[in-house]
């Protein structure tokens, strides 16, 4: 048996009520209410470990409520069981977090309130299909926004569904409860009606964004379900609100909701200004499905009659004065439609003309040129969204936009409401940041403030599909009959695609066919890699390229000599990004990219016997030149790429080329230590068929200690540095060597030696005559003037 009730349990006196017979149903119901009112629920007020049974007894025409309690024995409970509690929230603190921590920009309050108004209109339109009487005489479905700078207020009025008193308490009095979400849930449960996907709300906190700019909010609402109109009021930083019935006939609404924001002192001058409100509507709510009117100041020209003043000298005649008609401009206030542009992406692409796409592009992105191309598509399946993408008619004016992923070119909408255009590569990679367009989806994973696109599988799927559609659009331009379109595209956006070769290895197959370069066979027109492969010879196994700083230097580079002689096409990479892009590609259609300025160049048709004989013949010369140059070169070898130049300086297979070395030296924050490391080794290749090399070969065998031969080797190396695209370490020293060699080459030519000898001989004779006659000869000026005398009068 359980022990008796201990003193620790609080025992209250018996509760008694007058007795009434309970035979009738009415009395039974009353008895039931008594049980509810007087019997504590769930043992409330008892300590843990105490059980209590409540009994209702009849004593002396009265009911007696009695508690028979006992201390409960300890019982074995299952693991994990325990008491269940509800979360509690401090309302004022929660509102403070929503207002001050949820949103990044104050201006989004208008987007949230307009979205709520749009939902109210959508609900009314949906319900009126089955209940036409709900529309009544409430007027057209519309939204009107009226700022009042004098009083510092903004009034937003819609003719939507409105709210009853219970709905005011339920929707505005319960934080984070979305009326739209509840409405959609009810529609989904009713399978006959289905769900309206055009509704925007989902979080239940958008209304409270009004307190971002308002110190007081007044909501006046009239629902078709009720004959009464109610007013909801609340002030900022308060945990309570007031609801009252509207009794002033001047404030009566036929239907819908009117929200009045009493702006804070700091926000009156910005958000009570009519132009600011119109711009916010155009930015965030331009494509809402209902007309949005804003109260704007306008001007018009009117014709008025004015008294004509009397001319000077004329007396004013009695009677009616003369009047003349003039025009003047007067200002007035009126409603103006703010969302004229319709959401073009919601229409069927087959029904939209090209002119409509171009007009939408110019209005949406403030452009003056027609786009080069556009694509309009709808994606269904795991992710459903609609989009229109454009390629602009002109590229960015500065290089910063090329590498800036936050270009605000992609405007994200959710159910036609603008969410954001500030993305950091979530929807488009950096190299496609030039693409402009609109993306609209109903099920994007947004955070509560609707400002941040959360990383998720849905976002990754959207990104892939947008990229694929963009490449399809560019591919169509490249394959069109009008070649000028793609030429224009490449001039403006070719750098972006080359950047994609570096940053997006997963899309190399889509990017590579779109690349264009100049080549040794086509120096005027750009060549694609597909055209290059079509023109390749049977024995050619690689795609050859040369990276230089200009097209002119590429044409005259010594690396090309043998390849041009063998009719092998070479691509010219003349932009700084070209070489890095090609190195990231590595291959295309099983053909490797080969830099002809690096060692171990294989042309595919080498004569091994002839090469072996040349190496044997000039092996001693190569060793001798290497000894003369020392650590300046890694080795000296016979070249298979030269035909007219005596030598060339090539880079090691794994080091920087001359072009890359030049680019890295030009970096503002370049590291000199890494420059020395990555520069790699330099290899001097000599042409065995050139006369200078043959002369040096003879000097090596007959006079290896000759100082003149040593000077020739030094000058040959310095010249190879320049002709191969490298930068000499000491340009002044190189200049002195060239001057010295020039003096040796031209010394005594063109009769200069004979003239100098004659002058010396005449000066010697004059000195002898001067020794004989020590007096100076005085020469009188001539009185005879020549006809060609410049001083003649």
Helical fraction equals: 25-40%
The first-to-last residue Cα distance is 153 Å
The value of Rg in angstroms is: 46 Å
What is the overall number of helices? 23
- Assembly form of the protein: single chain
Order of neighbouring strands in the sheet with most strands? 8-7-6-9-5-4-10-11
**In this structure, how is the largest beta sheet organized?**
8 strands, mixed
Please count the beta strands (DSSP E, at least 2 residues each).
Answer: 25
Helix/strand/pairing category = alpha+beta
Name the shape in a single word. elongated
**Model regions low in confidence, pLDDT < 50 over at least 5 residues:** 1-51, 56-79, 192-198
Mean pLDDT across the residues is: 79
Bin the strand percentage. Answer: 15-25%
Walkthrough of the structure:
- ATP binds at residues 112, 116, 158, 163, 178-179, 202-207, 257, 450.
- Residues 304-318, 756-768 have a biased composition (Acidic residues).
- With 793 residues, this protein is an alpha+beta fold.
- It contains 23 helices and 25 strands.
- α10 packs antiparallel against α11 and α17 (608-629) packs across α20 (691-702).
């Amino acid at each position: 048996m359980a022990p008796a009730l201990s003193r620790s349990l609080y025992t209250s006196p018996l509760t008694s009520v007058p007795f009434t017979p309970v035979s009738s149903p009415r009395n039974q119901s009353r008895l039931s209410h008594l049980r509810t009112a007087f019997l504590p629920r769930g043992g409330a007020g008892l300590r843990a470990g105490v059980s209590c049974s409540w009994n209702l007894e009849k004593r002396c025409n009265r009911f007696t409520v009695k508690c028979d309690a006992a201390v409960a024995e300890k019982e074995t409970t299952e693991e994990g069981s325990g008491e269940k509690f509800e979360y509690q929230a401090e309302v004022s603190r929660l509102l403070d977090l929503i207002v001050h921590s949820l949103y990044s920009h104050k201006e989004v309050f208008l987007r949230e309130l307009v979205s709520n108004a749009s939902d109210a209109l959508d609900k009314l339109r949906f319900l009126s299909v089955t209940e036409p009487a709900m529309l009544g005489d409430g007027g057209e479905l519309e939204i009107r926004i009226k700022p009042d700078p004098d009083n510092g207020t903004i009034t937003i009025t819609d003719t939507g569904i409105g709210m009853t008193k219970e709905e005011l308490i339920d929707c505005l009095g319960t934080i984070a409860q979305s009326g739209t979400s509840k409405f959609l849930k009810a529609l989904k449960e009713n399978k006959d009606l289905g769900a309206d996907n055009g509704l925007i709300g989902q979080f239940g906190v958008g209304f409270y964004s009004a307190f971002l700019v308002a110190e007081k909010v007044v909501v006046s609402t009239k629902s078709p379900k009720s004959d009464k109109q109610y007013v909801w009021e609340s002030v900022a930083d308060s945990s309570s609100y007031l609801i009252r019935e509207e009794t002033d006939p001047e404030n009566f609404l036929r239907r819908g909701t009117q929200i009045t924001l009493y702006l804070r002192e700091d926000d009156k001058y910005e958000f009570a200004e009519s132009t600011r409100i119109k711009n916010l509507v155009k930015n965030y709510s331009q494509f809402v499905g209902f007309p949005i009117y804003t109260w704007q100041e306008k001007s018009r020209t009117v014709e008025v009659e004015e008294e004509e003043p009397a001319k000077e000298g004329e007396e004013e005649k009695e009677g009616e004065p003369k009047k003349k008609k003039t025009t003047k401009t007067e200002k007035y206030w009126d409603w103006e439609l703010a969302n004229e542009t319709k959401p073009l992406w919601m229409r069927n692409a087959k029904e939209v003309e090209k002119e409509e796409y171009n007009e939408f592009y110019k209005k949406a992105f403030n452009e003056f040129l027609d786009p080069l191309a556009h694509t309009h598509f709808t994606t269904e399946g795991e992710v459903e969204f609609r989009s229109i993408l454009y390629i602009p008619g002109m590229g960015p004016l500065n290089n910063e936009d090329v590498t800036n992923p936050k270009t605000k070119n992609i405007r994200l909408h959710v159910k036609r409401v603008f969410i954001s255009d500030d993305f950091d590569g979530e929807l488009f990679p950096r190299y496609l940041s030039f693409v402009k367009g609109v993306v609209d989806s109903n099920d994007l994973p947004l955070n509560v403030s609707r400002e941040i696109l959360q990383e998720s599988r849905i976002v990754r799927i959207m990104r892939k599909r947008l990229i694929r559609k963009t490449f399809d659009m560019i591919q169509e331009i490249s394959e069109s009959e009008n070649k000028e379109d793609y030429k224009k595209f490449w001039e403006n956006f070719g750098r972006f695609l080359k950047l994609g070769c570096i940053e997006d290895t997963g899309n190399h197959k889509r990017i590579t066919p779109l690349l264009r370069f100049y080549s040794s066979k086509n120096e005027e027109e750009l060549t694609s890699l597909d055209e290059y492969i079509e023109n390749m010879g049977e024995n050619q196994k690689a795609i050859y390229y040369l990276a230089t700083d200009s097209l002119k230097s590429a044409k005259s580079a010594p690396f090309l000599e043998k390849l041009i002689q063998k009719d092998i096409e070479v691509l010219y990479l003349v932009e700084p990004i070209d070489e890095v892009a090609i190195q990231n590609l590595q291959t295309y259609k099983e053909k490797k990219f080969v830099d002809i300025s690096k060692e171990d160049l294989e042309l595919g048709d080498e004569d091994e016997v002839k090469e072996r004989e040349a190496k044997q013949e000039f092996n001693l010369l190569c060793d001798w030149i290497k000894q003369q140059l020392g650590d300046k070169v890694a080795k000296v070898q016979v070249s298979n790429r030269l035909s007219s130049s005596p030598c060339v300086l090539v880079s090691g297979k794994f080091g920087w080329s001359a072009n890359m070395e030049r680019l890295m030296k030009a970096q503002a924050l370049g590291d000199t230590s890494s420059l020395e490391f990555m520069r790699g080794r330099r290899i001097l290749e000599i042409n065995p068929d050139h006369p200078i090399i043959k002369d040096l070969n003879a000097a090596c065998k007959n006079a290896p200690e000759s100082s003149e031969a040593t000077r020739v080797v030094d000058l040959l190396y310095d010249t190879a540095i320049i002709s191969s695209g490298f930068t000499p370490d000491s340009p002044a020293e190189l200049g002195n060597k060239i001057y010295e060699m020039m003096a040796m080459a031209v010394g005594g030519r063109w009769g200069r030696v004979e003239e100098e000898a004659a002058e010396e001989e005449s000066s010697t004779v004059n000195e002898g005559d001067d020794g004989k006659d020590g007096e100076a000869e005085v020469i009188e000026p001539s009185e005879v003037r020549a006809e060609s005398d410049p001083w003649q009068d």
